[in-house]
Amino acid sequence: MLLKVTQVRSGAGRKKDQIATLKGLGLHKIGRSRIFADTPSTRGMIQKIIHLLKVERK
């Protein structure tokens, strides 16, 4: 299964580890989307910053 992840809130003013997680997912600006395989490591990264993202199943 695939997950479409879209950044809906800014990383400005967040903790450094949350900003690093956004960069690790390849998200830098609001409105940008990426598609990822549904793996435990991806799920963990998403869960860490779920308040900044919108996640959809593909």
Tell me what you see in this structure:
This protein has helices spanning 16-24, 40-48; strands at residues 2-7, 33-37, 53-57. The chain is an alpha+beta fold and 58 residues long. Strands 2-1-3 form a three-stranded antiparallel β-sheet, with no helix packed on it. The model has no long low-confidence stretch (mean pLDDT 96). The chain has a single domain (2-57), classed as Ribosomal protein L30/L7 (Ribosomal Protein L30, Chain: A, 2-Layer Sandwich), CATH 3.30.1390.20.
Quick gist of this model?
This protein has 58 residues and is α+β, with helices and mostly antiparallel strands.
Q: What are its keywords?
A:
58 residues; alpha+beta; Ribosomal Protein L30, Chain: A; 3-stranded antiparallel beta sheet; 2 helices; 31% helix; globular
Question: CATH topology, what is it called?
Answer: Ribosomal Protein L30, Chain: A
Count of helical stretches: 2
Main pleated sheet = 3 strands, antiparallel
**Which CATH architecture is right?**
2-Layer Sandwich
Low-confidence stretches: none
Mean pLDDT metric: 96
The radius of gyration over CA amounts to 10 Å
Beginning-to-end CA distance, first to last residue: 7 Å
Draw up the topology in text.
Blueprint: E1 2-7, H1 16-24, E2 33-37, H2 40-48, E3 53-57
Antiparallel strand pairs: 1-2, 1-3
